[in-house]
Each structure stands twice: as structure tokens, then as C-alpha cells.
Amino acid sequence: MKHTLSREIAMKRLYAETVGGSDTLEDALEQTERGMSDEDMLFSDRLYEGVHAHLEKIDETIEAHAKDWSISRIAKVDLSIMRIAVYELLFEPNIPEGASVNEAVELAKLFGGEKSPGFINGILGAIAKEL
Predict the structure, then answer these.
(1) Structure letter (DSSP) for residue 31
(2) Tens-digit pLDDT profile for residues 18-36
(3) Within its chain, how far is the Cα of 113 from the centroid?
(4) Cα separation of 56 and 34, whole Å?
(5) For residue 43, what are the CA distances in angstroms to 7, 101, 110?
């Protein structure tokens, strides 16, 4: 099952925190015109909470694979997208690696800069290959 909207909502909440906000699930949902099932809301919350629970390990993994980039230099939207995908890669064994990477790249196309999809794909691809 695709959880595209779940990932988008989790990413928006993480991004809001990164730039000093505090969006709740409800706040993030208000920013979209699509509805969410209860299952999707639970999955979005699981992603969001999972990133927080494992943030240090996630950031270490990203930084180890982001050649010449520190976490502080990565665009906040890109970082939020990658944190979700890396959480999935490391801690959600029932989600295929390809799905996590592809969904992250699609989010990057929608919300990131021109080079975001390639940048994110490169880092996540290296992480997935190592796993």
C-alpha cells in the first residue's frame, strides 16, 4: 500500500520543527486538500515519532553518506525528506527499500529544489546499497 500522503504529512511536520514551528498532525492536514484514512494517519505518526526516537542514528547515517555535506548544510526540506526515508530503511523492515527511496525522490520533486531529487536519490541509494 502506498503511503505517499502519510510521508508528506510527516515531512511537513518535521520541516516545520526544523525551522522553528510546531505543526501538529492536524495543522499539516489542513495544508492539504486530500483526506487521510485512519491507517494513513497512524502511519504518518509512526514515521514522525520514529524519526524523533532515532534522530541521532538517522543523522549519523545521512552525514556518513553525504560526501562533503554536514547536516547543517543540507536544505531543511531535503533533510526532512531524507530523515523519513532513512528511518524507514533502518527501522521499518516491512517496507521495501525501493519504495522508501522512490517516495522520497517524489517528495523532493514536489517540495525540494531543482537538484534535490538527484541529491536525495544519491544519498539514499548509497545507504540502501550498504544495507
Answers:
(1) T
(2) 777 655 555 555 555 566 7
(3) 15
(4) 32
(5) 8, 17, 20
The pTM of the full predicted model, rounded to 2 decimals, is 0.87
Total structural domains within the chain: 1
Instruction: State the pLDDT at residue 22.
Output: 59
**What is the pLDDT, as a whole number, of residue 29?**
54
> What are the tens digits of pLDDT across the range 50-71?
999 999 999 999 999 998 888 9
- How much is the pLDDT for 39? 87
Can you give the CATH number for the domain in which 125 is found? 1.10.940.10
Instruction: Give dist(CA 131, CA 117) in Å, integer.
Output: 21
Sign of CA dihedral 64, 65, 66, 68: positive
Q: In angstroms, rounded to a whole number, what is the distance separating the alpha carbons of residues 51 and 67? A: 22
Between the two ends of the chain, the Cα-to-Cα distance in Å is 23
What region, left, alpha or beta, does residue 20 occupy, with left being phi > 0 and alpha being psi -120 to 50 degrees?
Answer: left
Q: Which domain holds residue 38?
A: 4-130
Give the C-alpha separation, 103 to 97, whole Å: 10
